[in-house]
């Protein structure tokens, strides 16, 4: 304050004020010594002092208290390993996000991630571009895991009860330490006879090390890895053929023909991100035209329409229980063809399937060494053995199919191990049971009665991020740290090793599983950092500090991927005979497939919440499933014909009976579903998930239906004999498409339009007539009556545009969640989705094509749809307050704080991409316990209030950030020509996409990728006749059908829905 | 007196006297409140309270309390708006256009029709106001000097709407009130209590009935009539621009302005009859609001109903003739899609029901007229619903097709708007002369030398002679 009255400013010395005898004066009266009221002391200190003595004191008090509190916080917060950004960090600008490499492990397989940290809190998870498996792309689970970190329902307290009848008491980690000491003593005495650890599948070296330590300390202890959706059959199949347990991995970049037998390589495989990228990399029609590349062909045989089936060039809907027979027939057919003999006819006794089988077999044999066959984990080991043998015979091994030594080794299957464990528990042989992350009370098959067995275990310790169903039955529940809160490590499907690096100190008093185990083993509360660091030192002899830091920085340990093993059938000479025997048995199986009228149940993990571990994640709950477009629910999926036969309608409740257990659930009638096959989606019906997924404690209704009771330890994945009894009760699904059953008027028009909106062609026709796509619509001449002075002209330096390649999009939904995370898009809940008020800026439109006689044989097209940023935007013209306007570089911007909410823009939008805030969707944040959710928000994007419109902005915040960055560089380097280059701006959806189907860039730059794609033969814009001039172009979907099959089923490319 | 006029089938009316007219109209205001008025008012004001509750709930909670969604951004809200604006049009047409065309029969109903206009426009204005997401900043749609240096967007039809409807309301209010001044003065002069004299004294603006007063009055009346006349056409044309200017198939139609105006007059006349028929019976005004007048109005309903029917037909023709597939689908979908019932309700009520008025006998059958008019009111509400909802529910991309389901708040708000309307109307008939006494005297009262010809201009020395500059 005093500096303002600094005499040097007024050119006076303090004593000279008002005295005329100084060199400088400001007015005559001053010179003459009179007080001029107009001048004098312009800045009177008293007037400028806003605080009187009291408030200044108060200020000091508050400041003092703040400093004291800040240092107090600092005392507890400052740790060696995660440093809060309270002090400036060198080289970092406040307000800019900082990426840290980390990894997320789901069911024992890691995805390499870059966590974006904003001032010490992770706000978004991107793919790690340096990770060889996902190369920058992500799946929806990884993106949504940041919401999981800030989930207020996370377990925050240690709970203990002596047995199921006594009250739950809260405990501290010191209590745990004491209790563990006693447990250690007990178990040391009998060498760990009654000590069991039940863990989720994990590839972590940290945990493997601790497992070894456990084995050393307690030789008789057992460590069981169990996953509710286990992939052990793959391992058993390789063992059957190759004599050793192996893990199969595919190199789809080299595969011309991909045969997916219920494997869902592009949707539900742990290596989906890599497979999608590799699959899409061989889908460049332009490269085919230029004769620079070939185009792969994808066959799919499955019971429920999967992501892969939706993308397939040829799909056969077939009951999963018939897969054995199908694979055997395929093996026989390929065997015959390899000997250059005529193919067997009527191998399957079904004209359609036989034609499909023969055409596929011919294609495979014609592409020896350039094809890949994958079969789903839910099929029996012998089916896997046959498929591996087929790959071997076709010369694919080492080329398109690689084998690694299975990390699980010869361990019993998870299902078996769990059954054994439960039996031991029930027999009272287990004294101490650690349950690490797993939730077996919910997920274990009903016949095991895991919960009942658990009551017989005197000391059960549950370590989990959530206080779930299992926690309710254990004596101890210890809150586990989120993966973004603790150190660990994990391997991807091909073994690439990553460090799981925490981004934040644990929000609550939680510990990682490694810390808990270490506490038990050593009695020390060690840091997860040390445990992981030591594990690395043990694993890599050369793990010096620089290599460790490099691994941390890059997110991957260089060259850590496993080396493919040279897989040869165990008995090289006898293999053919052995397989022939297997073949004959399978082909002549007395009961090869159940009677046609017998319904099979296939238990499929849900695409949104997986096996139930993501049930409490609202972003994932609200993703419209890629095919059913179902949110907030699972269902029994039935085909039209089967539903008709059973007298069941869409949305009807049924009693599903299997193995003597009955579950009441709703039926979703789905095109593409195989007849007589019911798909039961797992992961729902949780009773202790949280306020999102349902909790009995919080009186939040269960979301969806729990089909676990129908599974039995004998038949976990495919079971026949399901009985469905229709009830006279109806259910309402929250599906974002086909909100109501469509009438024939609408259905006919939808078919007609889908053909124009989503243009597609066959590769053969496209090669012959590449221009046909552009001329699919009779273009209207654009007559101008006058030159509209208000018409948008590109004035800016840049002209942003987007291209979306429909040949590549599989509809995986990663973009939808990435957009939600980037743009602070609210979740609206099931009722509001039913009310058609979902807020996703990016939706994926899904249309079926095929004829109405065989609705199980539909093909699917996906079209990601968000604001296309029309140059002649109809929304802008009608807004009375000019709340939606054009930027200089041509993006259609939404000015939230100007919007009064007339919704006229949404009415006039032909693409219906505008989203209105019908309520205050952030109202939950008013509740103090939900405050933590605020940490999820991206600070670069406004959180919208009630009553305003919103829509895709082309990630305008990223565009602006890039502009500022480039401008700064231009100034720094004195290079005014410095412009934003291709790839400088990547939108959130583009970044997430594993198929690289989305391209964004500057249309003013003719050399940019997006310009080239938009100008390509396949590029077309939606609703061109309206002259709205969208900036987003779509690239037509080019299918690559087998001419042999296409001729038989030539039909028009048109949309068809269920009606 | 009233008994003389009942069910007269001829144009020969028994003579009205000056005093008789004054007595018949003023009596309604001066006599104690009729017992039957109270239940009606109770019902209407209950409706008003419901409306207030619904609007309060809406503003506190959000637009989501209605059935709207991300596919259908407008439905009942704007349907109600256009419905009420349309109702208003009959009043202006009667008071302004028929005045300029020397349709003297209008004098018996113009006051009530104008009042109906005002109240209908109040109801109408309510809906665009509350339909916005952030009603607290709705004034941003007005061109006022502001710190943001922002003009509203003059290209938006919604802005034109703001101007059109507010101008319309202002002019209609002035016109109505101005026309009422001599009658208010009559009540003042007949007042028996000081309070009444004071209130009506203030309202009559010192009217003394001098020649100077009458001269100014007639000039102003003529001017306002001339000002109102284009408004009859412009307001609903502008309202129709809300739809016609958009690019939505089903809305983007050049026929909308005349079609909407015809529809507005159609619905307005139906509403006037719906209101006036009970009033003239209840307040014994059958000798003033004559059967001839009702007959005339039925003819207008028939004529405008045919225009509306023609518009429906031409829309379908154009949808086919334009060869625009989206347009063709929208119309086909209207008639045969999920909202077919709404479309056929509209056609039945608006095109088929008025055909009964080809028969003179039916035009003079009160129950028939009442039923037909209620049908027209229902039909015209559905017309707006059909235009708005069926065009929005299936737009260009089939992925974004949806359905509108009204919520209880939607329904109660519509009911409540009728409560507001009838509350105001009941207050009007109770406290204000519901028939223009001075004008009736000028055109309808039969002087001895008039040979029983009620429409002769010379017999109306005050009103018509002064009002008409043209040669008779």
Topology at a glance:
The complex is a heterodimer of chains A (1059) and B (472).
Chain A lengths: L6 H4 L17 H4 L13 H4 L4 H25 L20 E9 L2 E10 L2 E7 L12 H10 L8 E3 L8 E3 L1 H17 L5 E5 L5 H13 L4 E4 L6 H11 L3 E5 L6 E5 L10 H10 L3 H5 L7 E6 L4 H5 L2 E4 L5 H16 L12 H16 L4 E5 L5 H13 L7 E5 L8 H13 L5 E5 L3 H4 L6 H5 L4 E6 L11 E4 L8 E4 L5 E4 L12 H10 L5 H12 L5 H10 L20 H13 L11 E7 L12 H4 L8 E2 L4 E3 L1 H7 L5 E7 L2 E9 L7 E6 L5 E3 L3 E2 L22 E13 L3 E2 L8 H14 L2 E3 H6 L31 E6 L8 H9 L7 H5 L8 E7 L9 E7 L8 H5 L5 E3 L5 E3 L9 H5 L6 E2 L32 E2 L5 H17 L15 H5 L5 E5 L6 H7 L3 E2 L11 E4 L1 E3 L3 H6 L11
Parallel strand pairs in A: 6-7, 6-14, 9-10, 9-12, 10-11, 14-15, 15-16, 19-24, 21-23, 29-40, 30-39
Antiparallel strand pairs in A: 1-2, 2-3, 4-5, 4-16, 8-13, 17-18, 19-27, 20-28, 21-24, 22-23, 22-27, 25-26, 30-37, 31-32, 33-34, 35-36, 38-39
Chain B lengths: L17 H13 L6 H25 L14 H25 L6 H25 L25 H34 L3 H10 L7 H34 L11 H27 L8 H31 L3 H12 L3 H13 L7 H4 L2 H28 L14 H24 L5 H8 L18 H5 L5
Helix pairs in contact in B: 2-14, 3-4, 3-7, 3-8, 3-13, 4-5, 4-14, 5-6, 5-7, 7-8, 8-9, 8-13, 9-10, 10-11, 11-13
Structure description:
The complex is a heterodimer of chains A (1059) and B (472). By secondary structure, chain A is an alpha/beta fold. A seven-stranded mixed sheet of chain A has the order 5-4-16-15-14-6-7, sandwiched between helices. In chain A, helix 5 runs parallel beside helix 26 (814-822) and helix 8 (232-242) packs across helix 14. The radius of gyration of chain A is 32 Å and the shape is globular. Helices cover 67% and strands 0% of the residues of chain B. The longest helix of chain B is centred in the middle third of the chain and has 34 residues, at 157-190. Chain B is built from 16 helices and no strands. Chain B has helices at residues 18-30, 37-61, 76-100, 107-131, 157-190, 194-203, 211-244, 256-282, 291-321, 325-336, 340-352, 360-363, 366-393, 408-431, 437-444, 463-467. Chain B is globular and about 70 Å long. Chain B is mainly alpha-helical and 472 residues long. In chain B, helix 9 (291-321) crosses helix 10 (325-336) and helix 11 (340-352) runs antiparallel to helix 13. The chains are: A alpha/beta (1059), B mainly alpha (472). Chains A and B meet through helix 24, strand 31, helix 28, helix 29 and strand 35 of A and helix 5 and helix 10 of B.
């Amino acid at each position: 304050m005093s500096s303002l009255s600094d005499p040097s400013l007024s050119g006076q010395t303090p004593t000279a004020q008002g005295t005329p005898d100084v060199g400088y004066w400001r007015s005559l009266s001053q010179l003459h010594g009179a007080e001029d009221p107009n001048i004098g002391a312009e800045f009177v200190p008293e007037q400028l002092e806003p605080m009187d003595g009291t408030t200044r004191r108060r200020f000091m008090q508050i400041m003092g208290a703040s400093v004291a509190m800040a240092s107090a916080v600092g005392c507890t917060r400052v740790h060696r390993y995660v440093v809060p950004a309270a002090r400036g960090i060198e080289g970092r600008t406040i307000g800019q996000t900082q990426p840290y490499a980390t990894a997320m492990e789901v069911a024992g397989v890691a995805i390499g991630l870059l966590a974006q940290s904003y001032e010490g809190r992770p706000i978004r998870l991107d793919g790690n571009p340096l990770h060889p498996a996902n190369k920058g792309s992500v799946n929806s689970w990884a993106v949504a895991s940041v919401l999981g970190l800030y989930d207020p329902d996370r377990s925050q307290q240690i709970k203990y009860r002596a047995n199921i009848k006594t009250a739950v008491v809260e405990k501290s980690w010191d209590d745990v330490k004491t209790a563990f000491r006693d447990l250690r003593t007990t178990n040391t005495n009998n060498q760990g006879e009654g000590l069991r650890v039940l863990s989720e599948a994990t590839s972590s070296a940290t945990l493997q090390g601790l497992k070894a330590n456990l084995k050393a300390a307690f030789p008789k202890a057992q460590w069981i890895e169990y996953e509710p959706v286990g992939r052990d059959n793959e391992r058993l199949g390789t063992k059957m053929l190759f004599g050793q347990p192996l893990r199969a991995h595919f190199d789809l970049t080299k595969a011309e023909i991909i045969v997916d037998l219920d494997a869902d390589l592009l949707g539900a495989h742990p290596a989906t991100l890599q497979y999608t990228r590799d699959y899409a990399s061989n889908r460049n029609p332009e490269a085919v035209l230029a004769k620079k590349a070939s185009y792969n062909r994808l066959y799919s045989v499955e019971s429920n329409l999967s992501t892969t089936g939706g993308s397939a060039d040829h799909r056969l809907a077939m009951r999963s229980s018939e897969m054995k027979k199908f694979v055997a027939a395929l093996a026989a057919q390929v065997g015959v063809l390899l000997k250059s003999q005529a193919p067997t006819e009527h191998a399957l006794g079904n004209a359609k399937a036989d034609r499909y089988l023969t055409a596929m077999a011919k294609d495979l044999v014609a592409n020896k060494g350039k094809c890949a066959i994958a079969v789903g984990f839910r099929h029996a080991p012998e089916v896997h053995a046959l498929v591996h043998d087929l790959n071997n015979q076709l010369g694919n091994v080492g080329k398109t199919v690689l084998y690694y030594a299975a990390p699980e080794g010869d361990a019993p299957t998870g299902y078996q191990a769990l059954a054994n464990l439960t039996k031991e528990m029930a027999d009272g042989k287990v004294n101490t049971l650690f349950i690490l992350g797993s939730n077996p009370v919910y997920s274990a098959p009903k016949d095991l009665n895991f919960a009942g067995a658990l009551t017989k275990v005197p000391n059960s310790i549950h370590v989990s991020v959530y206080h779930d169903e299992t926690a309710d039955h254990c004596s101890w529940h210890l809150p586990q740290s989120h993966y973004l809160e603790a150190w660990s490590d994990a391997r991807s499907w091909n073994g690439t090793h990553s460090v799981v690096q925490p981004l934040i100190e644990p929000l609550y008093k939680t510990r990682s599983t490694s810390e808990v185990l270490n506490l038990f083993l050593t009695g020390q509360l060690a840091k997860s950092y040390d445990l992981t660091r030591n594990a690395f030192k043990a694993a890599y002899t050369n793990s010096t500090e620089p290599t460790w830091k490099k691994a941390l920085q890059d997110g991957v340990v260089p060259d850590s991927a496993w080396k493919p093993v040279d897989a040869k059938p165990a008995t090289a000479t006898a293999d053919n005979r052995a397989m022939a025997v297997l073949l004959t048995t399978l082909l002549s199986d007395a009961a090869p497939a159940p009677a046609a009228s017998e319904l099979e149940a296939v238990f499929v993990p849900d695409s949104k919440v997986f096996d139930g571990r993501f049930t409490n994640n609202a972003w994932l709950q609200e993703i419209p499933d890629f095919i059913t477009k179902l949110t907030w629910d699972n269902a029994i999926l039935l085909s039209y014909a089967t539903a008709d036969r059973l007298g069941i309608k869409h949305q009807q409740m049924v009693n599903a009976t299997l193995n003597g257990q009955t579950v009441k659930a709703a039926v979703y009638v789905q095109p593409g579903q195989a007849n007589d096959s019911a798909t039961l989606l797992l992961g729902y019906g949780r009773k202790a998930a949280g306020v999102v997924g349902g909790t009995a404690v919080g009186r939040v209704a269960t979301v969806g239906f729990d089909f676990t009771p129908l599974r039995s330890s004998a038949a976990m994945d495919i079971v026949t004999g399901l009985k469905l009894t229709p009830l006279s009760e109806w259910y309402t699904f929250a599906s974002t498409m086909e909100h109501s059953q469509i009438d024939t008027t609408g259905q006919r028009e939808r078919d007609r339009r889908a053909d124009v909106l989503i243009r597609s062609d066959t590769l053969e026709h496209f090669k012959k007539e590449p221009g046909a796509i552009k001329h699919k619509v009779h273009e209207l001449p654009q007559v101008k009556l006058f030159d509209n002075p208000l018409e948008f002209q590109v004035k800016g330096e840049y002209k942003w545009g987007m291209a979306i390649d429909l040949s590549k999009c599989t509809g995986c939904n990663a973009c939808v969640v990435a957009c939600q995370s980037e743009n602070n898009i609210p979740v609206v809940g099931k009722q509001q989705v039913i009310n058609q008020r979902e807020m996703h800026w990016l939706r994926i439109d899904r249309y079926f094509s095929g004829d109405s006689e065989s609705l199980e044989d539909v093909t699917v097209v996906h079209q990601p749809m968000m604001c296309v940023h029309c140059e002649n935007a109809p929304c802008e013209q009608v807004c009375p307050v000019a709340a939606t306007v054009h930027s200089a570089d041509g993006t259609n911007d939404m000015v939230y704080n100007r919007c009064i909410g007339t919704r006229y823009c949404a009415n006039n939008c032909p693409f219906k991409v505008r989203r209105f805030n019908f309520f205050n969707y952030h109202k939950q944040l008013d509740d103090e316990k939900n405050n933590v959710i605020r940490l999820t928000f991206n600070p670069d994007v406004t959180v919208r209030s009630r009553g305003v419109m919103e829509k895709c902005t082309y990630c305008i915040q990223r565009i602006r950030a890039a502009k500022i960055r480039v401008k700064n560089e231009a100034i720094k380097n004195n290079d005014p020509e410095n412009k934003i280059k291709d790839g400088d701006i990547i939108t959130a959806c583009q970044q997430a996409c594993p198929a690289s189907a989305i391209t964004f860039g500057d249309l003013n730059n003719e050399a940019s990728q997006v310009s080239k794609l938009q100008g390509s033969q396949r590029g077309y814009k939606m609703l061109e006749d309206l002259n709205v001039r969208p900036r987003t172009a779509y690239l037509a979907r080019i299918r690559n059908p087998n001419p042999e099959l296409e001729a038989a089923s030539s039909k028009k490319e048109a949309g068809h829905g269920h009606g | 007196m009233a008994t003389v006029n009942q069910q007269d089938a001829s144009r020969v009316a028994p003579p009205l006297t000056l005093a008789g007219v004054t007595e018949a109209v003023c009596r309604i205001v001066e006599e104690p409140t009729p017992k039957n008025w109270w239940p009606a008012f109770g019902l209407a004001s209950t409706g008003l309270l419901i409306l207030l509750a619904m609007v309060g709930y809406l503003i506190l909670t959000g637009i989501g309390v209605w059935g709207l969604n991300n596919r259908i951004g407008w439905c009942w809200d704007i349907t109600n708006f256009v419905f009420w604006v349309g109702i208003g049009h009959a009043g202006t047409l009667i008071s302004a256009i028929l005045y300029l065309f020397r349709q003297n029969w209008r004098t018996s109903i113009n006051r009530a029709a104008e009042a109906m206009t005002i109240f209908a426009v109040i109801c109408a204005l309510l809906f665009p106001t509350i339909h916005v997401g952030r009603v607290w900043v709705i004034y941003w749609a007005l061109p006022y000097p502001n710190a943001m240096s922002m003009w509203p967007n003059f290209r938006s039809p919604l802005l034109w709407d703001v101007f059109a409807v507010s101008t319309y309301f202002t002019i209609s209010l002035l016109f109505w009130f101005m026309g009422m001044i001599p009658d208010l003065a009559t009540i003042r002069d007949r007042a028996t209590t000081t309070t009444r004299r004071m209130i009506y004294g203030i309202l009559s603006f010192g009217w003394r009935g001098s020649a100077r007063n009458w001269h100014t009055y007639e000039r102003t009346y003529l001017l306002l009539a001339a000002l109102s006349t284009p408004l009859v056409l412009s307001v609903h044309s502008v309202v129709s621009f809300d739809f016609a200017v958009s690019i939505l198939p089903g809305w983007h139609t050049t026929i909308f302005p005349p079609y909407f105006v015809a529809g507005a007059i159609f619905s307005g006349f139906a509403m006037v009859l719906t209101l006036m028929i009970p009033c003239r019976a209840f307040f014994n005004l059958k000798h003033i609001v004559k059967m001839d007048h009702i007959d005339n109005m039925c003819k207008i309903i028939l004529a405008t109903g045919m225009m509306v029917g023609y518009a429906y037909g031409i829309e379908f023709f154009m949808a086919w003739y334009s060869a625009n597939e989206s347009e063709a689908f929208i119309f086909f979908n209207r008639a045969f899609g999920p909202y077919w019932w709404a479309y056929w309700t509209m056609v039945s009520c608006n095109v088929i029901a008025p055909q009964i008025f080809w028969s003179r006998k039916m035009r003079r059958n009160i129950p028939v007229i009442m039923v037909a008019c209620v049908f027209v009111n229902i039909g015209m509400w559905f017309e707006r619903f059909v235009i708005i909802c069926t065009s929005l529910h299936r737009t260009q991309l089939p992925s974004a097709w949806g359905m509108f389901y009204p919520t209880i708040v939607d329904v109660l708000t519509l009911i409540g708007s009728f409560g507001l309307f009838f509350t105001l109307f009941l207050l009007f008939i109770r406290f204000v002369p519901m028939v223009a006494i001075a004008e009736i005297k000028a055109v309808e009262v039969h002087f001895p030398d008039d040979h029983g010809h009620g429409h002769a201009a010379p017999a109306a020395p005050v009103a018509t002679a002064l009002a008409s500059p043209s040669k008779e």
